[in-house]
Design brief:
The complex is a heterotrimer of chains A (313), B (812) and C (199). With 812 residues, chain B is an alpha/beta fold. In chain B, 22% of the residues lie in helices and 15% in strands. In chain B, strands 25-27-26-31-24-30 form a 6-stranded mixed beta sheet. In chain B, strands 3-2-1-8-9 form a 5-stranded parallel beta sheet, with helices on both faces. Classes of the chains: A alpha+beta (313), B alpha/beta (812), C alpha+beta (199).
């Protein structure tokens, strides 16, 4: 058994990482720390996952979120999508394997991948609204968030969601508050089958090797690790039985990468800031860049407005 | 469970059939995952639906609900025909060699002695030949055609792979693949575990489903082994404990039984209990029955239970029928013969079958008392909730008293899990409002009732006013006081039976274990099998030492496992006739030449010689039973019977409908759909979903979010035939009622081809009602038939017939 | 609200926003850091822990209740979080979606708080005190028992049973409650006695 997440202690504690460990900060230039903390990661073994949604329940309870009570629409995904109050979601796919004719019920826990090269952070125009710590955690700072929604466009995995209540973006924090005191994420602690495990990124890769060997012994020739290089690798990785076809797992991107226009934005923000460029112009420019020059339309503008929840002023 | 959750990591093959462990017991299922990951164990799931357990299985085999016996006897037939039998185990540890009486037989689906009018058997012929020495006759060569083995071989021969496919709808190649994987476990060094739950019990032949697998496990030599066993996963946190403590019509704590009318005194009662050994040297532990019974009577009535009054034997009520189980009591209530009903943490309006009948029955009560931490449909059965509870309160004259109780987090005490671990828990929160714990509520009822009898007199007050009630605060016994009473104490000093100079327990002290019980009134014990749980060493249920020598998964110092802290039942059978483990890597206990030693408390007398004393110490035979004599109402072997409502007639016994020995009340027979009914053509089944627990978690917002609304599941084929859209509304109806639900259309349910015809399965989860935070909905019990298992009356929730059609949704 | 402004201010006051961006670019990030602590304070600090077991299925997972206030010190204790107990041999800290949401059971809006009585023909429950509720329960029990208790059957055998009132026991009460319930119920002569294991 992989060492389980320990019980929390209730005494006063000092945070194991913080501002001094930032390696990236949205729309800002910072001096990274001289020494990087050991990179952490969560490994989600889809082949061990029983789709029980304990991760969702633990996430709701730990983060004190209040997802809406929806209705049944003929599917098992509840809520039906990630929401500002549901940072992780089991996505269910009924897949008939054409090689074996066997039904496979592919169940993938969706949520923030904590990319090494985070598209959300790079797209974010609000200084300090998205930060990345040297241990790999990408976190949102709500006080700094302006709710523009560009993080969603910058994210190759379509993860962040904007709250209609406080108009800021939400996603999985990797339970940064738990990790800061030497705990593991709430979902990893709860996961009944250890389909979710947490540790250093190296440990996770090693653990994945054992899992992949087991899957190969059961006839899953293409079992493998999902740690996509297009985003510099991720701090949430998957073991997939069909690693050659990640897209069958409810559309997991085959080769996720940050849009080149978002990559360009980092330069632009500096330029924009230094040139004391009007912010309205900046956002307009960014919007243009993210959507591409050929795709900007009035509907897009409206969609962006809806996205940011701005109907007044 | 014969074994424990943590022991499952030791297995080589897991078969989940009659259960859905990944969904209903996710954290126990962890140990399946561990066995797979660390031992390369394989997982087989046999189920009408491709469940979340199936999603992580190596092999999934579809099966039509209610046909498990045909499948399992098919596997046994294969093992016998292909010499996949652990012969040394079968010969030494089962009754394969016992000779059966000449009168016994089986023909056309019926065993000898059937009385159609009574729906019951005269079981006289279902027994061994008893030799003049008063022992059962055996033929160790297994050549006698009347020995159990040869009768079994004949009995299962009809269940060929082809017949299994016709009855069960399991494709022959899948069945054979599963069978071959199972058959490999006949090796002494390969072990399979059976994990089952209500998918086997909720049938009119539920007990025989379980027997069929137990027989297979014996043939494979997997009982008593680490990683083996028959593992009943059990549904609720203390179902095991409530049963152990005997809260059933016919039980006394520790699986003693309530006397019958004709057992007019203690001697008559004892004459059919306390069995003598049927083979030489055997333990036959029930010979101690009288000690357990007398100690129980002393725990009930203390000094008022004396040798002169047969230890207050007359104060126990006597049974005139097999038992007043929940089905019988609701039947009597429906007939207007019951005035009062008290429900303690139980919601029968959703949990018992045939909702309409239940509502009618409750409406005939004079009073209903409920005790719960959460609101229930039962407590509000009189309240109108539109289509979800369409009643007229003004027409219901039942007085209802709802008492608020604490929940787990505000109460302390022990629960017994399915692995028989008694685990203590502590209170951590202040109860809401005026909620009170159950101990207080029950004590208040007793104390106040006793006071009324003292003041007013009345019908036979003796057992009430003399009930032993020596708690520090009579109105509020503590959990510790009660636990000590369950364990038992010495009223006079108890001496060793073999050595009268040796003191076993001083007068007034807690007993070390049930080995100290006496039948002369000098000891007490509320529940003998729990004795040892709270003794002079302290509260053993509260132990939290996680030591586990050699990581066998036993955790012998964690909590307390009944009986005697034994972790694996029948563990003597893990070693051969010389006392050596069948599999050295799986050693549990072994014979060191003078005594049994090892990782677990031996399930045999410590100095009982391996060649002489058999491992099944509760049986007078000393061995396990492939043929169960007259112990079961519906036959000494399992046989395939269709559910009472079935899309097919019985292919092996065309004239038999349902289980011929199951009790059916007159009015209920008329409410069954005909076999292969055109009016109700679809095979329905009910079940839990992993997001919810029974009818409780619809009160919990998070769980309501994770699975908000009642739905039914059908195949793409049936959806297309009936024009049902995914997420659309459907009406599902049976001969007893109807529900409206959302439709989930899925590849996980596929039509089964049974006897050449497609059978469509309709899946109906059970978590919704009209109280709580989730959307209002129905339970499957609006549809289910009012009939139970022949032996224990568990209702047939897993197999019944319905029809389905698309409908418009409710007006917005 | 810090100087980096809300979205509305951001859109409405271009200059301020640009200044913020510029600050970042010039390496003044440390100034804002004090205002922008991303990591939430660990919410279990200074809570009281109590060991318990999950009340749902019979795996009986170990859980830890975290409360403000300590019952053992005679205080009011409000449970504010529940999670799995890693020291427990069976669940090792894990919990299923039911167990992981146990707090919602403890805090459910539909927890019962007061004894209630619904009178014959009424369409509502009415709150009563415990004394009134319990005295009513035992009065109803005694009247029915006295009227219908059977001491002897037709054959003259002593049977001492009471069949017109039944008791349905729980599935999640403790063994200690079970034993006490057994005593109380059996001593009345009730035979219609069952528990959830039946179904």
């Amino acid at each position: 058994m992989f060492p389980p997440v320990p019980n929390p202690t209730t005494g006063p504690q000092t945070s194991k990482f913080g501002e001094k460990d930032l390696i990236r900060r949205s729309a800002s230039t910072i001096t990274p720390p001289a020494e990087r903390q050991t990179e952490v990661a969560k490994l989600i073994d889809v082949s061990k996952c029983i789709g029980c949604k304990a991760c969702q329940a633990a996430c709701i309870e730990w983060n004190d979120t209040h997802p809406e009570l929806e209705s049944n629409t003929g599917i098992y995904e509840n809520p039906h999508d990630l929401t500002p109050d549901m940072f992780t979601l089991m996505r269910f796919t009924e897949w008939e394997n054409p090689e074996t004719n066997n039904l496979e019920w592919l169940i993938r826990k969706d949520g923030c991948m904590h990319c090494e090269d985070p598209g959300c952070l790079k797209a974010c125009p609000a200084p300090g609204a998205i930060v990345q710590y040297s241990n790999g955690i990408v976190d949102f700072v709500h006080e700094n968030c302006i709710g523009c929604g560009y993080c969603i466009k910058g994210c190759p995995f379509n993860i962040p969601r904007i709250s209609k209540v406080d108009h800021t973006a939400y996603k999985c924090t990797l339970c940064s508050d738990r990790i800061a005191v030497g705990q593991g994420p709430a979902c990893a602690k709860a996961c009944p089958t250890q389909a979710i495990v947490y540790g250093t990124k190296d440990e996770m890769k090693k653990h994945a090797e054992g899992r992949i060997a087991d899957l190969k012994s059961r006839g899953f020739e293409k079992a493998g690790l999902y740690d996509p290089p297009g985003v510099g690798g991720t701090h949430v990785m998957y073991v997939l039985h069909h690693a050659d076809q990640p897209e069958i797992y409810a559309g997991l991107p085959n080769n996720p990468r940050i849009s080149p226009v978002v990559e360009a934005w980092k330069g632009v923000t500096k330029y924009a800031g230094l040139a004391v460029m009007g912010v309205a112009a900046v956002t307009g420019f960014l919007h243009y860049m993210v959507n591409g020059p050929n795709r900007v339309s009035e509907e897009d503008e409206e969609a962006a407005e809806r996205l940011t929840g701005d109907r007044s002023s | 469970m014969t074994n424990s959750w943590t022991d499952i990591k030791n297995t080589d093959l897991v078969i989940i059939m009659g259960g859905n462990a990944a969904e209903a017991h996710p954290c126990g299922f962890k140990w399946v995952t561990e066995a797979k990951a660390n031992r390369g164990a394989r997982l087989i799931v046999v189920d009408p639906r491709f469940t979340r357990s199936a999603s992580v299985a190596d092999v999934y085999a579809p099966i039509r609900q209610g046909t498990d016996i045909a499948f399992l006897l098919g596997v046994i037939n294969h093992c016998i025909n292909n010499d996949k039998v652990q012969w040394d185990y079968v010969k030494a540890f089962t009754n394969a060699s016992f000779i059966v009486r000449d009168g016994f037989g089986y023909k056309d689906g019926l065993f000898t002695g059937y009385d159609e009018a009574k729906r019951d058997y005269d079981k006289t012929s279902w027994d061994y030949v008893i030799a003049p020495d008063a022992f059962a006759a055996v033929d160790e060569t297994l050549t006698n055609p009347r020995c159990v083995w040869n009768l079994l071989k004949e009995h299962v021969s009809v269940y060929t792979p082809e017949m299994v496919e016709r009855i069960c709808g399991t494709p022959k190649d899948t069945f054979l693949k599963v069978t071959e994987m199972i058959a490999e476990c006949s090796s002494p060094t390969k072990v399979m575990t059976s994990m089952y739950a209500l998918g086997w019990t909720q049938h009119s032949k539920g007990s025989q489903n379980i027997r069929a697998m137990a027989m297979l496990q014996l043939i494979l030599g997997n009982i008593g082994m680490r990683g083996g066993g028959m593992n009943a996963l059990r549904g609720h946190s203390n179902i095991q404990g409530l049963t152990d403590v005997g809260l059933m019509s016919n039980l006394i704590p520790g699986y003693l039984t309530i006397p019958k009318d004709q057992e007019v005194d203690l001697e008559t009662y004892m004459s059919t209990r306390g069995f003598k050994p049927l083979r030489p040297n055997q333990t036959s532990y029930w010979q101690n029955y009288r000690k357990f019974f007398v100690s129980f009577q002393k725990a009930m009535w203390g000094s008022a239970a004396t040798p002169e009054n047969d230890f207050a034997y007359d104060w126990l009520p006597k049974l005139d029928v097999s038992g007043y189980d929940v089905l019988r009591i609701f039947e009597l209530m429906h007939e207007g013969k019951v005035n009062g009903y008290m429900c303690q943490g139980f919601n029968p309006l959703l949990a018992a079958p045939n909702r309409k009948k239940l509502t009618d029955a409750l409406s005939k009560l004079k009073f209903l008392v409920t005790m719960d931490p959460l609101d229930t449909e039962t407590a509000r059965f009189w309240e109108n909730h539109g289509e979800f509870n369409d009643v007229d309160p003004s027409q219901i004259q039942t007085e209802v008293i709802q008492l608020p109780s604490t929940c787990f987090a505000e109460d302390e005490g022990s629960l017994t899990n399915s692995g028989r671990w008694l685990q203590w828990h502590w209170a951590g929160g202040t109860p809401p409002g005026e909620a009170k714990n159950d101990n207080w509520i029950m004590a208040q009822i007793h104390v106040r009732l006793k006071e009324l009898y003292r003041k007013e007199g009345g019908a036979f007050p003796d057992p009430i006013v003399n009930l032993d009630w020596a708690y520090a605060d009579a109105g509020a016994p503590t959990a510790e006081e009660l636990a000590k009473e369950v364990n038992g104490k010495a009223l006079a000093t108890v001496y060793d039976a073999a050595d009268p100079t040796k003191v076993v327990a001083e007068a007034g002290k807690l007993l070390p274990s049930f080995a100290a019980l006496r039948d002369d009134g000098s000891t007490t014990s509320g529940c003998w099998i729990y004795s040892g749980c709270f003794n002079e060493n302290g509260n053993n249920m509260a132990r939290r030492d996680t030591t586990d020598p050699d990581e066998t998964g036993a955790y012998p110092k964690w909590a307390f496992s009944w009986p005697l802290n034994r972790r694996i039942l029948y563990n003597r059978a893990s070693a051969d006739l010389n006392g050596k483990p069948w599999d050295p890597d799986r050693k549990l206990i072994e014979w060191d030449g003078t005594k049994w030693t090892g990782y677990d408390v031996p399930d045999i007398a410590p100095t009982a010689k391996p060649g002489e004393v058999g491992p099944f110490i509760m049986n007078p035979e000393g061995v396990s039973r492939l043929f169960t004599r007259g112990m079961m109402r519906d036959g000494p072997f399992p046989a395939h019977y269709e559910p009472f409502e079935s899309p097919l007639s019985n292919l092996v016994a065309p004239n038999v409908r349902g289980n011929p020995a199951a009790r059916v009340f007159e009015g209920d027979f008329k409410q069954f759909a005909e076999p292969a009914s055109e009016e109700f053509p679809y095979a329905a089944t009910s079940y839990r979903l992993t997001e919810h627990f029974h009818y409780w978690t619809k009160h919990c917002r998070t769980n309501a979010v994770l699975q908000p609304e009642f739905f039914v599941e059908i195949s793409e084929q049936l959806a297309s035939e009936k024009g049902i859209a995914a997420g659309g509304w459907v009406r599902v109806w049976s001969k007893r009622g109807e529900v409206r639900a959302k439709a989930v259309v899925t590849k996980r349910i596929k039509p089964l081809i049974c006897d050449g015809k497609p059978v469509h399965v309709v899946g109906i989860p059970l978590h919704w009602g009209f109280t709580g935070v989730a959307k209002k909905g129905f339970g499957p019990n609006s549809l289910t038939p009012y009939v139970g298992d022949a032996n224990i009356e568990t209702p047939e929730y897993k197999a019944f017939l319905v029809n389905i059609e698309p409908v418009a949704g409710p007006a917005a | 609200m810090n100087m980096e402004l809300s979205r509305r201010q951001f859109l409405g006051a271009a200059g301020a926003g640009v200044a913020a961006t510029a600050l970042g670019a010039f390496g003044f990030g440390e100034i804002e850091a004090a205002h922008a602590e991303a990591i939430r304070a660990f919410k279990l600090v200074n809570t009281t822990e109590t060991r318990n077991t999950c009340p749902y299925c019979s795996v009986a997972c170990g859980v830890i209740l975290y409360s403000r206030g300590d019952l053992k010190k005679g205080e009011q204790a409000e449970i504010m979080h529940i999670e799995g107990d890693t020291d427990h041999p069976t669940n090792r800290g894990t919990l299923c979606p039911k167990g992981a949401a146990l707090l919602d059971f403890v805090k459910s809006d539909t927890r019962l708080r007061y004894p209630m009585i619904r009178k014959p023909g009424s369409d509502k429950f009415e709150r009563v005190g415990w004394d009134e509720a319990l005295d009513r329960v035992v009065r109803l029990m005694k009247d029915d028992r006295d009227a219908n208790f059977v001491e002897k059957n037709d054959a003259g055998q002593t049977v001492n049973r009471w069949l017109t009132t039944g008791f349905l026991a729980a599935s999640a009460t403790t063994n200690e409650t079970a034993w006490e319930t057994y005593k109380v119920v059996r001593s009345t002569g009730m035979l219609a006695f069952d528990n959830q294991a039946r179904v």
